[in-house]
Amino acid sequence: MKFEHLINFNTKLTTIFFELKFFFLFQITTIKIRFLTKWQVSSFADYYWFLFSNKNFTFLNKYL
After folding, report:
1. pLDDT band at 64 (very low <50, low <70, confident <90, very high)
2. CA-to-CA distance for 34 and 12, rounded, in angstroms?
3. pLDDT tens readout for residues 22-59
4. What is the mean pLDDT of residues 58-62?
5. Looking at per-residue confidence, does 64 or 15 come out higher?
6. How far apart (Å, rounded) are the C-alpha atoms in residues 7 and 12?
7. Rounded CA gap, 39 and 53, in Å?
8. Maximum Cα–Cα distance across the chain
9. pLDDT (tens digit per residue) in 7-21
10. How far is residue 62's CA from residue 3's CA, in Å, rounded to a whole number?
11. Are 5 and 35 in contact (CB under 8 A)?
12. Are 26 and 47 a contacting pair, CB within 8 Å?
């Protein structure tokens, strides 16, 4: 019972850290995009449209 509780706690921690990592990656890339192209990336949808339309998968694969 304790062991299962530990496993659940670990999975929760890893998901939280993964979400935080993804959030900070998003923030950093939006800053870079704003600095380089001076575009206002307003939301996640615009950001992903920008990514997939330009086929920039390399830095996503590097960080995730």
Report:
1. very low
2. 33
3. 666 666 666 665 555 554 545 555 666 666 665 555 55
4. 55
5. 15
6. 9
7. 15
8. 54
9. 566 666 666 666 666
10. 33
11. no
12. yes
Domain count, the chain: 1
- Structural domain range at position 21: 2-63
SS3 category, 42: coil
Which residue is it, tokens 């923030």? 27
Task: Please give the structure tokens belonging to residue 52.
Answer: 């997939």
16: left (phi over 0), alpha (psi -120 to 50) or beta: alpha
pTM over 0.85: no
Angle, CA of 16, 21 and 22, to the nearest 5°: 100
- For tokens 């659940």, name the residue: 8
